[in-house]
Amino acid sequence: MSRLIIRKVAVLGAGVMGAQIAAHCANAGVPVVLFDLPAKEGDPSGIARKAIDGLKKLDPAPLATKDRAQFIDVANYGDGLEQLRGCDLIIEAIAEKLEWKLDLYAKVAPFIRPDAIFASNTSGLSIAALDAGLPEALRDRFCGIHFFNPPRYMALVELIATARTQPAMLDDLEAWLTTRLGKSIVRAKDTPNFVANRVGVFSILAVMHHTARLGLGFDEVDALTGPLIGRPKSATYRTADVVGLDTLAHVVGTMQATLPDDPWHAHFKNPDWLAGLIAQGALGQKTRGGIYKKDGKTITVLDLATQAYRPSAGEVAPEVLAILKNRNPADKFAQLRASQHPQAQFLWAIFRDVFHYCAVQLGAIADNARDVDLAMRWGFGWAQGPFETWQAAGWQATAEAIQADIDAGLAMSAAPLPAWVFDGRQGVHAAEGSWSAAESTLKPRRDLPVYGRQLYPEQVLGEAAPDAGLTLWENEGVRLWCLPARDARIGIVSFKSKMHAIGNEVMDGLLEAIARAERDLDGLVIWHDAPFAVGANLQQVAEACQAGQFDLLEKTVAKFQQVSMALKHSAVPTVAAVQGMALGGGCEFVMHASHRVLALESYVGLVEAGVGLIPAGGGCKEFALQAAALAARAAGGDVFPFIQNSFQTIAMANVSKSALQAVELGFAKPSDDIVFNARELLHVALHRARALAEAGWQPTPVQRAVPVAGRNGIATCEMMLINMQEGGFISAWDYRVAKAAATALCGGEVDSNARVPEQWLLDVERALFVDLLKTEKTQQRILHMLETGKPLRN
Amino acid sequence: MKQIQDAYIVAATRTPVAKRNGMFKSVRPDDMLAHVLKAVVAKVPGLDASEIGDVIVGCAMPEAEQGMNVARIGLLLAGLPNTVPGITINRFCSSGLQAVADAAARIRLGEADVMIAAGTESMSVMPQIMGNKISLNPAIFAHDENLAIAYGMGLTAEKVAQQWKVSREDQDAFAAESNRRAVAAIAAGAFKDEITPYLVSSYKPGEGGAVRVTERLCDTDEGPRADASPATLGKLKPVFAARGSVTAGNSSQMSDGAGAVLLMSEAAVKRYGVTPIARFRSYAVAGVPPEIMGIGPVEAIPRALKAAGIGQGELDWIELNEAFAAQALAVARQLDLDPAKVNPQGGAIALGHPLGATGAIRAATLMSAMQRGQARVGMISMCIGTGMGAAGVFERV
């Protein structure tokens, strides 16, 4: 647990990064003051204020909920510097100009408390050079803190120490960033562009070099350098457009200016076409045109040969695709290298040159190879870092291939591979640790106490496997296990299904796991990697529909409800540890657990309407219960006002865009735990289950007299629907499905504010669900979803 | 129509009209009402207020801050004698005009010599534009012929636009013209005489635990936009139908405001020695299918003119409430109303439409025009939710 207490953060600079870093602090509930220059006219803090307004419009959203903006105050360097005295962490994020930064440091220094941390988010400047310009009093509390864009979603933060930075302070800051902001930390050396950008930008330069050399199209290269090789969908050139071509050129310029002795220095220049686009003001997404341009509905791409935009196609040759599908990395790389196809040659070349570059630079830029690999995963979204990719491909064979290409003059640089590459090793990652070229040793992971919270940290290939725990029971759907080293009497149940879809095996498994937990354990945690669960197994549902087995389907729904009720009314506490998607039936299990521990990035929703159904695993019932509870505390006690929002949530199949929003939508409770670092989820869930048990867990009794909105409530929901249908916003079938949701939420066709038992609510939603399932239109929707992954609006 | 005596309008005034959640965001509708009641009484110096037979107040959502018989509360807050009675009436958008008609009727029947008609509405304090608690009758959905009861007003405007073939371009042009006229009228000071400025006090947390009170004198309608043009309006998306034509820009604005009218019999006029502004001539209201409620005035206007024995050609000033450009245009075309005479100073698209207050507010506008000599025979008309139209005819004295 982080012991560093940061009550308030200041962010200097309300640009793209500054404002979003401020937003993420606000997400964590840490008050922030966002500074910028005094505005020339109007509100002196207008620049920062405008930046906050801008945050609300960005997609993906930097703010976990819009109301988090309330934790960001605005200020300016003209009259606001006094506010710095109240800040424990000051992050500078202004433009990358050394003299501007040093001017600002001189101005703010008198207002920074001696116990505060001062850090720069520079991505390109030398931390030592910044440190040299700092007033003496601040120097041992100064470091580099390099976030990646967008900071809420990119895990990586590089921390860079100077010779004077207090080591304990840096450890505290690392712990705080890890737990409070949920970031993944790599300690970088103070070399230009640090670790991730140094390798990542080199990789882009290599891609550009070989694109031109082999005469490939930008769209073709993007097809090759995306998910096919474990990199983000936006691949290379699309990413450049998103980042901004001017920004990319600037970073390349930094490498050119600051790395004169780098053996690849000759390649640190922007290609003519890039300079040309920038000169025309085509900077990418922000100018609505760059390497790609949207032309009406078609996306076009710049063709270097004709210097004109043409429709983007980007196809990968079948023979190259076949090579990439090879599951044996050694074979795959050998085949890529051997193939005469330009696409294959291209892929081999970009990997080769990045491997080559990383091997040569490892000692200078990073403590060890693990840091490089993790930096590329966390900062650039690569599925695997360069060293682990190399190691998987067969270290020695690949090293020899690289050397041969260097010798043949095919590589981008003639720099020799370092001697350690050929010392007979099988790789750089081993059970004992990862290779440090600077210290010629294997370095284990650092053992800061904060990492004790990560029971299953993200691992690179070749690391020692973590404790897999003790299996208590399992079936095809789930594994019930525990971690005796942590808490032998808290069970963990993990789904085994693909995307953690909920089928019969999972439900049977959960029922058994709950029964065993009630008999043998003190609590039960549902945990596995993301996603939490994508909902019911639609394939099973579709098959049963086609076979006309509606009795069976009704029994399946009844079982769904049985699992939900078992989770809710269990004799031991049940804790759902949620990360990623928790949809449909997954969401219903989440709602029924005794308690929820949610990673910030939790996308929770009842999406049944998309396939022409309504929630029937107790989801409608839970919202009806919530409304009754809220109404009991409201003047008048009328239930309907508290149904309206959940009706819209279900009818529109709204999914939360964060854990905080899941609370707003009613899928989670304000008393639930929100964990910023998903790697800490299991730790927190185990402790929460233990705490609930120790507090003398008493299951919630089943409700016997729930007031419902009834017939008037259903009619009032219908008013919204008739207007949407007549306005052409929804189809007649949407109306029918939404009316079923309204009916379930309102407790059926009973008098308004009539009181019904909880089981009645379950019966109503189950009957409506089965009625819908029997219809052709709903079955069409289910089949369409299975075939295309998209909802059908019939 | 048989009547004992004529009813005369001797004074009328109103607040400026605020945008919803605008300058009157925290102003209570009962305070707005008290304000205009006090002001309209003050326009007749020497009036013995205890002679006021009744205060009839129109309000379309008479609940919460404007509930509890807001008429009686407003008149007491205004400092009128507690012997003066008050009644709140509701016919949705025509409530304010209905109040004037009812007040006139009491005088015409000889039941009273001095009456006040008013309207007040705050759409800011309503949590939803349909009131605090929406609850529809299940019977509406049991029979198709009742479905339109549940239609939103915007949807009915789409139906009128379809049936009367009012194009998007025409609606936007009409909306732009409404704004142009309103902006010009404000610039010319045409509303100055009819508006009684309202001093808004706002109470916010201040330094050192003190409540910071700020005051702002509001004297100008907030709605009109000088930058509204067919081009800018043309960019707005339809709100009520996916492929519709009714937008936020060619619909009336949601607003806050109040208006009041003082009426007297001829005997009272003589006794107090006041110069009446206009004689109340007639009022009519009629029903139409709920799904095309906006066409209501087409039924009401001829009836009102007939009752007054006045030809349509004699009308020289028509306040036709612009609930939506679609319906206002359909009505004007159907009845062949002269566009120059319809809303010469702009309408609800620019000036706003505080539902039940609008009739009383526009009465103040018409009286002001008559006092300036710009109108001899004038009319106020509007469509009404769930399918009605109302029209009232006034003649300058």
TrEMBL record, chain A:
Residues 8-191 form the 3-hydroxyacyl-CoA dehydrogenase NAD binding domain. The keyword Signal applies. CDD domains: crotonase-like. It comes from the Bacteria. Residues 1-28 form the signal peptide. Residues 194-293 form the 3-hydroxyacyl-CoA dehydrogenase C-terminal domain. The keyword Iron does not apply. Gene3D superfamilies: 1.10.1040.50, 2-enoyl-CoA Hydratase, Chain A, domain 1, NAD(P)-binding Rossmann-like Domain. It catalyses: a (3S)-3-hydroxyacyl-CoA + NAD(+) = a 3-oxoacyl-CoA + NADH + H(+). This is 3-hydroxyacyl-CoA dehydrogenase/enoyl-CoA hydratase family protein.
Automatic annotation (TrEMBL), chain B:
Keywords: Acyltransferase, Transferase. One of its GO terms (molecular function) is acetyl-CoA C-acyltransferase activity. It comes from the Bacteria. GO terms for cellular component: cytoplasm. The active site is at C93 (acyl-thioester intermediate), H353 (proton acceptor), C383 (proton acceptor). Its EC number is 2.3.1.16. Residues 8-266 form the Thiolase N-terminal domain. Pathway: Lipid metabolism. The keyword Metal-binding does not apply. Coiled coil: none annotated. GO terms for biological process: fatty acid beta-oxidation; phenylacetate catabolic process. Pfam families: Thiolase_C, Thiolase_N. CDD domains: thiolase (cd00751). Gene3D superfamilies: 3.40.47.10. Residues 275-396 form the Thiolase C-terminal domain. Belongs to the thiolase-like superfamily. Thiolase family. PANTHER family: 3-KETOACYL-COA THIOLASE, PEROXISOMAL, STEROID 3-KETOACYL-COA THIOLASE. This is acetyl-CoA C-acyltransferase. It comes from Zoogloea oleivorans. The lineage of its organism: Bacteria, Pseudomonadati, Pseudomonadota, Betaproteobacteria, Rhodocyclales.
